[in-house]
Amino acid sequence: MSTETFQQERRLVGETDSLVLEVDDIDDNWTDAGFPRDGLLSSPGRNRLKRVCLGLLGVTVVYLAVRRAVFWSNTTAPSSSNNVGSMPKNANSTSVSPTSSPTTKKNPPSPPASSNPLTESPVGTNTPLASPTQSPKSPESETTINTIQAFSVLDPVADLGILAIDRPPGSRPPRMLHKLKEKYGALPTNAWYQNMLMIEDNAEPVSINRAYAMPYVVDASGPIPGLRTIPGRLQVGDSTTEYIVEENFGLTLGLTTNSNNNQTMSNRRYMVTDATQLAVTLEWHDGSMASPIVRGMPYGTMIYEKGKLAAGSTRSRFPTIASELPVESIRIDNQQNVMLEDGSRVWIEHELQIALPDSDMTWLIFVSERVQIQRSPTSFGTVLQVVSWGDAETTKDLVLRVTQSETCSSGRNPVYCQQEFKDYAGRKDGYSDLLRKHAHIYPGPNASFTFDFFHTGEVDESRLVFNWDARRSENLHPLAVGDEEMLVFALPHHFDMKFIQGSPTEERFCWDSLLGWACAVRGSKWEVLDEPLTSVSFRALRPPSPWVIPALVTSLGTDIQYRIPDNYRRGAGDTYFSGKMLAKLARIMVILEEVKHLCTNPDVSYSDACSRSSLPDDESIQRALEALRESLNVWLGKTSEAPFVYDASWGGVPNCGCYFDGNGCGNRYPYCPALSDAGLNFGNGFYNDQHFHYGYFIYSAAVVAHFDPSWGKTNYENVLLLVRSIANPSRDDNFFPLLRHVDPFRGHSFASGITLPVFRNGRNQESSSEAIASYEAVALYGATMSQIFEWEGMDQERKSAEAVHSVGRTILSMELRSAKRYWHISHEKDDDDLLGGYRHGVVGILWQTMFQFQTFFGTAPYFVYGIQLLPLTPVSEQRDGLDWIRSMYSDFSSSCTGDCVSSGWSIQDIAVLATGGHFDDALDKVNALPDGAFETSGGNGHSRSNTLWWISTRPDVEDPISVLPVPAPTSLPAPTAPLVITCDKPETCTPEVLDNDAGGFSCGARIRWLITTLNFSEQDACAQVARDEYPNECNGC
After folding, report:
1. What is the structure's pLDDT at 766?
2. How far is Cα 919 from Cα 546, in angstroms, rounded to an integer?
3. How far is CA 679 from the centre of its chain?
4. Would you tell me which of 357, 539, 609, 695 could form a disulfide with 549, CB atoms 3.0–4.6 Å apart?
């Protein structure tokens, strides 16, 4: 193959057009019905470029059917896959036909002789990396379906030599997870139900050990052992919106003893017997009852195994419905109201309806068998025991299901009556009947999320499959004849995609949830298309504009000399800021590569600009590459002062942690303080923020491999450890949990891990943009390595890398969609009735049951906006829609003065200004920034070159955003006095001490940063730096 042909094969090529499959356009009908829709990829004014030379992702699939043979033996479930990124084929589920995967080349072409062929890619259209196996397409449409295998199944310790660590007792998994551990190996650490898993041994669950299953919050701390299903309501404020629940308004399905005097069982502890990304299954009292808890569940479900309830003995245990409130009326089978006194009994065929006047709520309880219930005396509320079911010979399990049918039964609760159904008036009976129709279809423990990939013509897309593992009871409600689909609530972003299987109910029934209207969908399995998948590249969709080239070249001449601070080069420090600094240098290198190509192969438009510029020489690039490569070698190897370690207890690769003593880490492996100190390294040792941290490392590794393919091949499995720790798609890799951070139902990641005590509002994520960047990095790494392996003829490694590429793109697309839906607030377009009084243009921290306009490090608006706008990489263009930029800029920009500029957060403000069409103003602002702005907390992951690159690659904006003019000063401003620091110790806290190096920054710089950025008092800032962090270097202060 000629060099020219090879370069064309390596071309960075275009973005996809969207594809419309010939399926029922259910979501369009839903939109016509009035449901708000703002598709991820439908922004007006976008440049649509066709992609060529895309790869067929030929990867094998491994199917595992996981069953519980004992407890679930009386039900029949469809087979399910244990691979998130694979799914069984169903010819009836889609209109496209699978073809065979591409075969491996027997004699792959060799790259041309070059010291670095991967740096010789022509800029072309500056668009995404092509998949390496793609050959030129014929005009007719082709479809290839590819599924995902494990990236690797190598043992991190035995095969790859990573250091092993034993967690201290206080952060090990509780015994309640031992069945899960035996079944899967690795355990979830950031799951939506994580609060329910974090209960210390011998402790009882309390109300904070709960999960927001949506639309209900569930916990196991009700009045009796069992599952309490709790409705909620939105409380909207100008800066905080919270989903509030009153626990005593809930209804509990559980167990009690002795039907004569209701001796309530005191032990509420449970075991976790199964956990997937959609479901967690809890089991009480040796399996006598179990509850599958799933996302979007309209009903709480409890399954009782008759053989373990010892019916008829003095130790009998009875299925029980318990309310902490008194019952006003009881209706049997929707026909008659009955008055049940303590001790009286009644038979039920299908349903029980109870009204609770104190909450003004009505509940329906459905039974899978004919049952006899008894009202039992209690010291609280109401207890209804199932004292008999079926006939004497039956061995069938009993399934009880509970659901709230009305929130405003009589109008006595003004708070809940204001938050009825959307378009609910006059339709209470319709919703109750809908619940009756679907009550006999309930979820099993193997509810799963899977996905696979389509390549059709020039489009890559992913099919997301939500399989609820539906089970069926034989006791059908009279209204349920002919309806065999499960009922589940879906979130707004689900309706932004195309439903292929599963559909909204004929009438629209929607509850308000924290994320918007949650609406009922019929479907025991959903299949939705995410189309097209977001493409990734080291470069933007267009090259830098010629008019910026002189300034960019000048900046690159300085920035290519940037070196990571010495302590980070030795692996002595945290993994967040070190990762940002590694990725900073990596971005400088790829920008210089692109500009160098523009100026060495210029067209007319670049000839003048390049003739006035003097590019750094090749040795500068090689020195930068060597510095970046050496730093990565330290972090990825065993020589790091704070090495990555393998944690077999939970299954992951945390960092050992570093107590920096001024010279380096005062601790050494095997003493790893990050696994016992949740405040160290942003909680990395407790699986907090790992995708943020590791995304920067993975991006840097992709760049080094891009410039040095040999290094990429040698270190593939070592880098893959970080990828597997945050993005493992397969149960075959039992060293890591599935997609650690990702909640596929909500479509985004949760950053918070296994810290104790758990937060009452559940899991959270602050920076949606860093989550997006982390999966961009995963996809880029996979694309880069698959190209390298393709040219080397390394087929198995290529398949692994292609899987990394595809999984990264899929999660990236999910994160983008949810960030635009749930973090970016545009009051002109979003539902005012749900946003209420929330007055800001962004969410700072999104919890499971709350969102806030603040960050974990401050409440200044520029913090809140800024943390959703970094880093600046090519995918950021897909992240920041112009409508959102237009609505939020004023709030952001008006706050970005003074400390915002000096601490580097104004870099994001400049980027937004350029995105909004004000290129000249943005260029003036970035040129005016002091060099120190790129070394501060808000700017140390940026560079001047990267900021200029961003400005110069923005598309034209026909209608630029409004920018308030800055009034001319009436007089010269008074000079600002420098911040003088003495720490109240002028005799010892001298300028010499303040200038001492403390981990790459001076003692004074660190103290000033805490004062100006985090609003510390001088006394507190001095104490933290000089006493706690750097006592040797900064001791005088």
Report:
1. 98
2. 13
3. 22
4. 609
| 84-98, 646-660, 919-933, 994-1008: least confidently modelled range | 84-98
β-strand pairing of 329-332 with 300-304: unpaired
Query: Which letter does DSSP use for residue 715 in this model?
Result: T
**Assigned token pair, 980:** 């003088």
For the chain, how big is the Rg over CA atoms in Å? 30
The HSE-up count of residue 395 (CA atoms within 13 Å, CB side) is 6
Model pLDDT for residues 763-815, shown as the tens digit of each residue = 999 999 999 999 999 999 999 999 999 999 999 999 999 999 999 999 999 99
Domains belonging to the chain, first-starting first, are: 205-271+281-443 (2.70.98), 448-468+476-531 (no CATH), 546-952 (1.50.10), 975-1036 (no CATH)
What are the helix and strand counts (H, E) for the chain? 26, 37
Give pLDDT, residue 257: 85
Q: Could you give the CA distance from residue 189 to residue 174 in angstroms, rounded to a whole number?
A: 12
Distance CA 456, CA 940 (A): 42
Nearest to 789 by CA among 697, 733, 717: 717
Tokens of 713: 């091949």
Across 128-132, average pLDDT: 40
Peptide bond into 532 cis (omega under 30): yes
Spatial distance between the Cα atoms of 83 and 881, rounded to a whole number of angstroms: 33
Q: How far apart are CA 672 and CA 669, in angstroms?
A: 6
pLDDT digit string, tens, across residues 594-622:
999 999 886 788 988 998 889 999 999 99
The dihedral through the CA atoms of 336, 339, 342, 345 has a sign that is: negative
Residue 923 is inside which H or E element, if any? helix 919-928
| Residue where the block lists tokens 């979830």 | 188
Dihedral, 166, 171, 172, 177 alpha carbons, nearest 10: -160
Q: How far apart are alpha carbons 272 and 208 in whole angstroms?
A: 17
pLDDT at res. 37: 32
331: buried, middle or exposed (CB in 10 Å: 19+, 13-18, 0-12)?
A: middle
- Kindly state the helix (H) or strand (E) to which residue 240 belongs, with its residue range: strand 240-245
Alpha-carbon distance 278 to 292, whole Å?
10
Rounded Cα–Cα distance for residues 818 and 871 (Å): 18
- In this predicted structure, the answer to whether residue 19 has a pLDDT above a threshold of 50 is no
Q: Tokens standing for 955?
A: 């598309």
Q: Output phi, psi for 788, to 5 deg.
A: -60, -50
Provide the mean pLDDT of the chain. 83
Measured distance CA(904)–CA(931) in Å, rounded: 10
The rounded Cα 268 to chain-centroid distance in angstroms is 31
Q: How does pLDDT run across 95-112, given as a tens digit for each residue?
A: 222 223 333 333 333 433
